[in-house]
Amino acid sequence: MIFEHQSKNKNILLGMVIVFLLGGTSYITWSKFSSLSEPVYCTQEAKLCPDGSHVGRTGLQCEFAPCPQPSPEDTVDEAGENWKTTKDSKTGVTFQYPETLLTEYIHTQDWPPQIQVLNETFTCTEAGVETARAGQTLKRTVDNRTYCVTKVTEGAAGSIYNQYAYAFQADIPPTPEASARQSMTVIFTFSLRTVQCGNYNEAERKACEGEHETFDLDDVVDRMAMTLQFTQQTTPPAVSTSGGINGTVLLGPTCPVVMDPPDPACADKPYATNLVLTTADQSRVITEFSSDANGKFSVKVQPGEYTIRSAATANILPYCSHDQFKVEANKFTNITISCDTGIR
């Protein structure tokens, strides 16, 4: 009887242990699933990543999400600028550019820059002013490298829009088709928008003006130029330079009143003046030339589309201009350029 009683007690104790274990396991499992089903609210903090983007807290532990990782071809410089790599489909040229400028009052517009590779010798003719229709072209030197910079400025709605064309010489490494290095002209074109600092209060205006004064765009472009990579596809075909432009420059009106029939004494007259030949979009001056006392001139250029204007600024009369025209290979295009005296 004693042994039977002890055996019953053991069975009861064992049963209680099993029930306790099952209950504890069920509670732990329920607690985990219960916590998963409840929403987790993280503080609204943001972390600044090297590429200029921001990430927030997420997950059960409210940890910051990983920052975007640059591709193997991209780099992050010491200033924290994320430099992207782009490739021009026409020439195969690759170069790096900063995704953002890390500036508060200067913003990219037409970005990344567009690139042109011209099979011609690099030259630079200084002319014009920023606010003229064709802008101002100046020669600049950055770290012993020469750039021909054309800048066109327009203002609108509290901002200033600046269009830039940076032209410079680039040497293309030898290829199977060309055993010697070739010198080409490369052009970066882009636009920036700068905020007019006068729209702010005194403290922010000073910060804005300080950024405008210290921002070094020439350095940014020079760093982009140093990343140029050329391929066998890069070299543009050689073009004939036997074509050109023959023209006559006429000055008028010469009388304040138009006569009917016209007075021969009031006819437009030949005009000797200085002119510049620009690309069709007027982003770059190709060359400067002059007409003679009879208003005649002749310029040899490569085939392409061009415009012509006065070498002087658009605010000075007489002002000469001619709309876009085309020069074909091995041919001379004949044009007549009108110069406005301002007489009415």
Number of continuous helical runs: 3
Shape: elongated
Proportion of residues in β-strands: 35-45%
Helix coverage percent: 10-25%
Count of folded domains: 2
Largest sheet: 8 strands, mixed
Integer average pLDDT = 80
Low-confidence stretches: 33-37
From the alpha carbons, calculate the radius of gyration and give it in angstroms.
35 Å
Distance N to C terminus: 137 Å
> What is the H/E string?
HEEEEEEEEEEEEEHHEEEEEEEE
Structural class: alpha+beta
Number of strands: 21
Condensed summary:
The chain is of the alpha+beta class and 344 residues long.
Topology diagram in text:
Layout: H1 2-37, E1 46-48, E2 54-58, E3 63-64, E4 75-76, E5 82-87, E6 94-98, E7 106-108, E8 114-118, E9 127-128, E10 136-142, E11 145-156, E12 159-172, E13 182-195, H2 202-214, H3 217-225, E14 244-252, E15 269-270, E16 274-279, E17 285-290, E18 296-300, E19 304-310, E20 319-327, E21 332-340
Parallel strand pairs: 14-21
Antiparallel strand pairs: 1-2, 2-3, 4-5, 5-6, 7-13, 8-13, 9-10, 10-11, 11-12, 12-13, 14-15, 14-18, 16-17, 16-19, 19-20, 20-21
